[in-house]
Specification:
Layout (H helix, E strand, L loop, with lengths): L1 E3 L5 E3 L4 E11 L2 E17 L9 E14 L10 E5 L8 H8 L2 E3 L14 E3 L9 E6 L7 E2 L11 H18 L7 E7 H17 L5 E7 L14 H5 L1 H10 L5 H4 L2 H22 L5 H15 L3 H6 L6 H7 L7 E2 L7 E2 L13 H20 L14 H6 L13 H10 L4 E7 L7 H9 L11 E6 L9 H18 L5
Parallel strand pairs: 6-9, 6-11, 11-12, 12-15, 15-16
Antiparallel strand pairs: 1-2, 3-4, 4-5, 5-9, 5-10, 7-8, 13-14
Length: about 500
């Protein structure tokens, strides 16, 4: 639709660009017919009306992929789940083609990639049989872009990201008549930060109360994962995941290799007890206590006592990934520490790349670019931004200047206002990006009413950050998500 600019010349306003296709998949032995809507929706921002304003101003064109199961006369009774990944700067491709959608990237059962060319397969672990799905790409990820005349960097911001994703959710819910549907969010990594922020924004700005939020590899309190001088918390909370990693690569003694869960229980008790007290003493820690702590840290991590002495009892995750298998001239992954890689040499302090990201980047990128055009019939010459470093490095947290980002309080308040809001938290034992004990610590310090504690469910998987690349974990995750969705919807029959 044309509009006039200040010179009186007509200009083209951005338009929605949507394509619908129909498909079939078999999930749990049941044939599911579904419709896919893929494309871009223009988000507008209200302006105060004056002589130069039209009332609404186009700000961004948001790309999404929506899956709606066919055969429901009253879609208002059908659950609806909005999904996104994190980064910041990540598209929604990982949850989309990894576990939730009806098509997924084909990998070996343990998560190792197959050689190119890659392929998609029908996903029998999808949750489409229980919930419709909408995958959202924030601005400057996927095909989402700021409209002409708008500065992209304005969207690289903690608060604006929540606002615009929340406004998209409101707009989609309105246009597709889903206000009466049971509604869920599922986010991964920084997407869990966004999801917790949205729990407050959707309630307070749009009056939209959710049934549930699913947090995959969660980080709500950034203090638990920032290795900065004076902050001892990450050294404590990462320790059990260091142990799990050493266990997987057989770097522990025979006694500790016997049972992962028993070993982790011992290390968790040490980390939150004796180790915490030792770090609190700082330079006042007596020599004999220091020696005992070093011996136990070595026992639990597979690192040498000399190395731990040199770290001042504080093992940094970025050093750990280089140090654990240094003698074998190998490194371990950050997103999934089960995977190993090699650098140019075994010297140096940090790894050259994350081998666990390297194994998924190629398959997911190729398969989405093929899938969106070949099967979903959406055409665009824009690059589909899988994970944008430009966005990540430019991200701003102005709302949290001089403090650690912490959206746990937003989630607590949302649960207090909406006591029916349920939360599922999925954790990977081999996740060195968002370790499980750091997540548990955050929820143990949520300070919610005791009656609301039953609204929180914690689940654990023997895989990493994207636990669904491990097929047994993917099967368990699907079961846990379905159970959660069913429990979060009131039975009114």
């Amino acid at each position: 639709m044309p509009s006039n600019n200040e010179s009186g010349q007509a200009k083209e306003l951005p338009q929605d660009n949507l394509v619908e296709t129909r498909h079939t998949v078999t999930i749990g032995g049941q044939e599911i017919n579904y419709t896919v809507t893929a494309g871009t929706m223009v988000l507008k921002q209200e302006e105060e009306k004056d002589e130069k304003a039209d009332g609404e101003k186009a700000k961004a064109s948001m790309f999404f992929t929506a899956y709606t199961r066919d055969g429901f006369e009253d879609v208002g009774k059908r659950p609806l789940t909005f999904s996104f990944n994190g980064g910041p700067g990540s598209s929604s491709v990982w949850l989309h083609l990894g576990v939730l959608g009806p098509r997924r990237v084909d990998v070996e059962k343990d998560g190792k990639p197959l050689p190119p060319p890659y392929q998609l397969v029908d996903n029998s672990y999808s949750i489409l049989d229980y919930s419709d799905l909408v995958f959202i790409d924030p601005v400057s990820t996927g095909f989402s872009r700021a409209v002409t005349g708008e500065e992209p960097k304005q969207f690289f911001d903690f608060r604006k990201d929540i606002d615009f994703v929340g406004d998209f959710i409101r707009l989609y819910t309105t246009r597709y008549q889903r206000w009466s549907s049971p509604k869920f969010l599922i986010g991964e990594s920084y997407g869990t930060t966004r999801a917790a922020g949205l729990s407050g924004y959707l309630q307070e700005r749009h009056g939209m109360y959710l049934n549930g939020i699913m947090l995959v590899s969660s980080i709500l309190d950034f203090q638990t994962a920032r290795f900065t001088a004076g902050n001892d918390l990450p050294y404590i909370l990462f320790l059990p995941t260091f142990t799990a990693t050493a266990w997987y690569h057989r770097q522990l003694s025979e006694a500790y290799q016997a049972d992962l869960h028993q070993t982790l229980a011992e290390v968790e008790a040490f980390a939150t007890g004796e180790y915490t007290l030792a770090l609190m003493k700082g330079s006042k820690l007596p020599a004999d206590e220091r020696a005992a702590i070093i011996e136990k840290l070595s026992r639990y991590t597979g690192l040498s006592p000399d190395y731990i002495e040199q770290t001042n009892l504080r093992i940094n995750i970025h050093r750990f990934t280089k140090e654990l298998l240094r003698a074998e001239r190998r490194t371990v992954g950050r997103l999934d520490s089960r995977f190993a890689g090699t650098d140019r040499d075994a010297a140096g302090e940090y790894t050259e790349f994350d081998p666990s990201y390297a194994i998924i980047q190629g398959p997911y990128t190729a398969m989405f670019n093929d899938y969106v055009r070949r099967e979903l019939k959406f055409e665009s010459d824009l690059p589909y931004e899988i994970l944008s470093g430009r966005v990540n490095l430019s991200w701003k947290y102005d709302e949290h200047k001089n403090e650690f980002v912490n959206v746990a309080e937003t989630l607590r308040k949302a649960m207090r206002i909406n006591p029916f809001l349920k939360v599922l938290v999925a954790n990977g034992y081999f996740d060195l990006a968002t370790p499980y004990l750091a997540t548990r610590y955050t929820f143990d310090h949520l300070d919610i009413d005791p009656g609301l504690q039953q609204n929180i469910t914690m689940t654990y998987y023997e895989a990493g950050h994207m636990m669904y690349v491990h097929e047994p974990s993917m099967a368990q995750l699907r079961e846990d998500l379905v159970s959660f969705i069913q429990a979060a919807i009131p039975d009114r029959d």
